[in-house]
Amino acid sequence: MSKFFQKNETILFLILLLLLVFLSFYNPQFYSIQNINSILRSSSTVMIVAFGMTILLTSGEVDLSVGALLSFVTVIVMDVINISGSLFLGFFSVFIFCFLIGLINGLVRTVLNVNSLIGTLAMMLILQGSVYIYSMAAIYNTHLIPAFTFIGQGFVYNVPMPVIIMLVILPIFVFLLNYTRYGRYFTAIGSNPFSSNLSGINNNRYKLIGFIITSLLVGIAGIILASLMDTGQQGSAKGFELIVIAAVLLGGTSFKGGSGTILGTILGILILKVIDNGIILMSIPQEFQLVVPGVILILAVYFDTLRKEKNG
User: Fold this and answer.
1) What's this model's pTM, rounded to 2 decimal places?
2) Any idea where the domains of the chain sit in the sequence?
């Protein structure tokens, strides 16, 4: 068992490879350019948010409000751009809103000392209700600005624009988590908050930063999603938080904090998205797209518990 956990990313890569081989034999259309682009595009928004969630979980915290926030962002960005005709104002409104939500989540955890599982669950419910107070109906694109549509639907040399945005963000978080003292701080806080505090690390400050970073990344993903759908919809990200957390945990990040890798997160997301795509290609009811992450979430937490017991 210990060998499995020491080679988690290798195992994930092999699982992904087996899935790719199986689906290519089952349906040759799996390797069509259109299908590959569909997988990569849908994976990109999850990856962008998952980069922040990896840091947050590594520090021993979690954010269940990302799905509700993502839906709210699609509504805000579409509404503001429709009214103002300005991409800048639309994006600025999104990032201010996301910053405030991340700040509130962080303060609830660090100042009020409410467990992040409970605090962000409460925020999820608040956002789910508030978005309908903001707008009772979906907000459609009436501004027709080509640059906005290009963000979610455009291509650069046959590569979907959401993938390019994700690839621009990716090295920032790889560098942050693996090659800076701040990345080590997040790991130290999740591993042993008492020791990290004695070492002079301000635990609450970095946890607060983690919540804000995650919410801002949701803002980027929400803009992409609104552009892709060409509308702002209140329930457009149902179950999104489950997929993100399941993928991050599958990638080897510990639910109890202290360990996490961006590469593992990417592999976890690709596995879930390839499974999603396989469900569609095999004509399996699409409800299983939420069943699979739920099962994986249970297994990931279980194996993480075994690993902690083994190491400790």
Assistant:
1) 0.93
2) 37-237
